[in-house]
Task: structure prediction
Amino acid sequence: MTAPVLADALGPRGRRQARVASVVASAVIVGLVILFVLRLQSKGQFESELWKPFTLWAQWKFFLGGLVVTLKVAALAMTLSIVLGTLLALGRLARSFAVRLPAIAFVEFFRGLPLYVLILFCGYGLVEVGIEISKFQALVLGLTLYNSAILGEVFRAGILSLDRGQTEAALAVGLGYWQSMLLVVVPQAFRRMIPAIVSQLVTLLKDTSLGFVILVEDLLRRAQLAGGFFGNELQSVLVAAVMYIIVNYSISRVARRLEIRQRRRYKAGAIQVTGVEDLAIVGAQAEAAQIQATDRE
Amino acid sequence: MNIVLDNFDAYLAGMIDTIVLTLVSFALAFVVGTIVAGFRVSPVPPLRAVGTAYVTIVRNTPLAVSMVLFWFGLLPALGISLSRFWAGIIVLTTYTASFVAEAVRAGINSVAVGQAEAGRSLGLTFPATLGQIILPQAMRTVVQPLGSIFIALIKNSALVTIISLPNLTKTGEAIGTATVQFFPALLGAGVAYLLLTLPSGAAVGWIERKVAFRR
Result:
């Protein structure tokens, strides 16, 4: 579909203008790319010496090993965050103030801190008060604290988005509060929240790269080490960046698919996802809305 | 806790650095992001491709990677000398702009199609329709995501520590290193961040209520 997003198809004059603009824009883009490449060329950044390490399997093994660490950290932190996030959401929705207060405090505290500070804190601060954990564990802990706060908010939104009738029905058939929550509400809310969880995974995966500030040997750290060793910082980090992009892009495609499918399924039950910094969701929402609009026509 | 009070001035300076970084990059990111969003909905295919490529690449690259790539890779490779401040601003702006672009695009799509058609019927060109009719209406729905982007930026600005640019996190880290007491030093920085993020969150909520559509 090449029709512009903003209105119906262009008329003859509009098409002509768009064609002229296309040619000019292409010329400018190609010109800029050529300038950039020439500049890199003149600085010798395409010398085979700088790219040679990437012909070695050992180099790739080193990078892929870093990627495995990155994925491992992300998977661990995600699992823990989902568990802790569910507890936080339930805590925040609890009727007792004594349960609500700590949950609110936890979420607001950890949501407001930069992950960088949190990871430094887990990596260097905790040892000082006698909590001995490895740097790997520190990274997972920092990521979990932060993401469970975010996911807690996502789950809360999901639970609130559910029709009140579900809780009422559960209570009516004689279930207790916690039973109705755990058996009826949470499973449904969780299902609705899957796209949000998957796109939060992209954010989490990106954030694992902060592990390099406490010297966890993840993909970024290894790329830096290799770059320092071979004197090709640009090339090494560039390769790492491409690896990150491939993984993240794949996950966000999945998130987008899921989101669009969910939209179809729950048409009116649009989920208000608050507290999610990564706007993959907003983008997906826009696309889904677009698809719905075109479906209607 | 003593070391936080002893270094109160340093924390204050760090806070100001963080505020400046955030405000400058947010202002720039807002402009760049809006332009990219305009590219993405424009009737000119090459511009749309550039917009999509920009958002896809930047949004899927971790900020830490961009920071390292730009400062330790790209700048030396191109032989460009740039101050740490502007390098930090450029990376933060580039990253944040990709999110702003997505938010603005979602906002544009939330405006009824009839508005654009009406603009075109009046004989307005695409940029005029976008700038004078669509965007002003889109901005209302964009306030909430822009608010969370702003708060995320306050936190993300901590990453300029990677290129040794002074900011609140760097202050905490430096004091932690100097006194070998990371626990209180970083806690101090954390509290200072909360002093920035929590009021920002409240302010965003307030603005949101102010501009909300009455339904």
Q: What stands out?
A: Chain A touches chain B through 75 residues (CB under 8 Å). The longest helix of chain A spans residues 57-93.
